């Protein structure tokens, strides 16, 4: 551990900053984890793109198709590469089984991960959502020393209220939240608990406004930091730094220049295949992607062709690495 439990909030306030990206898990054609490909992606993201931290084995990373042993292995690989690049990690310990959450979290602690993230639980028979969710996180926080990021998303069947999140922020090692909710809700939480909880959401389209209007310090986290940038073209990093320095109009111009990339990603993504689509876009950028595991579906040849045409027209400065992309 890089800090004591009671120092978790101060440590996060000082270090949980900038662009944090959610890693996709590359697989080989026979659906094993592509460890060399994952290491190569991490090195590119940390060293070429300057991404501050990586979110490991989460929903984008297909955690639901991974064994506990595989999730731990991804943690290990990410921690090793982060240490070599003086970067950081946040390990996704989300699971419906509480023992699995704690097993993964303790492993994250043991390898000096910076933080963990835990999704709010599915509540098939929840009588009192706020009381149930509070006790869930309170118990997890009590068992651990590592800093915890909450995660609320509509996939759970409900959204954690700003009031509940503010109450959870009183726990000593609850440091942040990935709050996938309407803007009014996360803006209200920022006003309520901004001194005790680092609030973020995964929308790149809202990131600039949230820096400027809400004073946010971290993009936590999704795939745009490595899908919209290359070693030759780091405009998301550029507009982030400009906005955080208060150079708002310059930042806005750089942000706006990425609109063709945003639209290319958005209009070519088939319904229900975000991981497959993003993995193929990674391959077009020269990164490791590979297939998805069941129950997810891969892209069809036609969907790949449409995506490739949009990619080539969107204006990303890709450099030589793009020549390694799969056809």
Q: In summary, what is this structure?
A:
It is built from 14 helices and 8 strands. The chain has 327 residues and is α/β, with parallel strands linked by helices.
Structural features, described:
It is a single chain. This protein is 47% helix and 12% strand. An eight-stranded parallel beta sheet has the order 7-6-5-4-3-2-1-8. It has 14 helices and eight strands. The C terminus is likely disordered. It has a domain of 226 residues: Alpha-Beta Barrel (TIM Barrel). The protein has 327 residues and is α/β, with parallel strands linked by helices. It starts with 7 loop residues before the first helix and ends in a 14-residue tail after the last helix.
Topology:
Blueprint (H helix, E strand, L loop, with lengths): L7 H8 L2 E5 L12 H14 L4 E4 L11 H18 L2 E5 L5 H13 L4 E5 L9 H15 L3 E6 L9 H7 L5 E6 L3 H11 L4 E3 L3 H11 L3 E5 L1 H4 L7 H10 L3 H10 L1 H10 L5 H11 L16 H13 L14
Helix pairs in contact: 2-3, 3-4, 6-7, 8-10, 10-11, 12-14, 13-14
Keywords:
single chain, 327 residues, alpha/beta, TIM Barrel, 14 helices, globular, disordered C terminus
Instruction: Please list the strands of the largest sheet in the order they lie side by side.
Output: 7-6-5-4-3-2-1-8
Which overall shape is indicated by the principal axes computed on the Cα atoms? globular
Beta-strand percentage range: 5-15%
Helix content: 40-55%
Query: Tally of extended strands?
Result: 8
Largest sheet: number of strands, sense, barrel closure:
8 strands, parallel
Give me the CATH superfamily of the domain at 5-230: Aldolase class I
Instruction: Measure the end-to-end span.
Output: 43 Å
Whole-angstrom Rg: 19 Å
Which series of helices and strands comes N to C? HEHEHEHEHEHEHEHEHHHHHH
CATH class of the domain at 5-230: Alpha Beta
Model regions low in confidence, pLDDT < 50 over at least 5 residues: 322-327
Q: Would you tell me which CATH topology of the domain at 5-230 applies?
A: TIM Barrel
Quickly give the CATH architecture of the domain at 5-230. Answer: Alpha-Beta Barrel
Number of helices: 14
> What would the average pLDDT be, to the nearest integer?
95
How does the helix and strand content classify structurally? Answer: alpha/beta
């Amino acid at each position: 551990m890089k800090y004591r439990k009671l120092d978790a909030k101060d440590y996060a306030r000082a270090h949980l900053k900038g662009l944090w990206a959610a890693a996709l898990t590359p697989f080989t054609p026979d659906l094993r984890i592509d460890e060399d490909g994952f290491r190569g992606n991490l090195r590119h993201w940390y060293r070429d793109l300057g991404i501050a931290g990586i979110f490991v084995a989460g929903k984008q990373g297909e955690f639901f198709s991974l064994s506990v042993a595989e999730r731990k292995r991804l943690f290990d690989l990410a921690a090793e590469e982060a240490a070599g690049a003086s970067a950081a990690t946040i390990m996704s310990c989300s699971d419906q089984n509480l023992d699995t959450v704690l097993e993964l979290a303790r492993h994250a602690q043991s390898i000096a991960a910076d933080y963990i993230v835990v999704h709010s639980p599915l509540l098939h028979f929840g009588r009192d959502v706020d009381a149930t969710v509070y006790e869930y996180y309170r118990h997890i926080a009590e068992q651990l020393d590592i800093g915890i990021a909450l995660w609320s998303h509509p996939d759970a069947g409900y959204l954690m209220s700003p009031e509940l999140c503010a109450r959870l922020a009183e726990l000593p090692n609850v440091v942040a939240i990935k709050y996938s909710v309407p803007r009014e809700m996360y803006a209200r939480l920022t006003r309520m608990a901004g001194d005790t909880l680092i609030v973020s959401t995964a929308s790149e389209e809202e990131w600039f406004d949230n820096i400027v209007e809400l004073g946010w310090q971290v993009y936590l986290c999704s795939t745009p930091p490595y899908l919209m940038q290359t070693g030759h073209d780091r405009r998301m990093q550029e507009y982030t730094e400009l906005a955080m320095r208060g150079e708002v109009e310059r930042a806005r111009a750089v942000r706006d220049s990425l609109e063709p990339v945003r639209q290319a990603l958005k209009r070519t993504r088939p319904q229900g295949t975000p991981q497959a689509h993003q993995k193929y876009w990674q391959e077009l950028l020269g990164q490791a992607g590979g297939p998805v595991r069941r129950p997810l579906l891969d892209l069809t040849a036609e969907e790949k062709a449409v995506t490739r045409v949009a990619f080539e027209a969107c204006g990303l400065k890709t450099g030589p690495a793009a020549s390694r992309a799969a056809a």
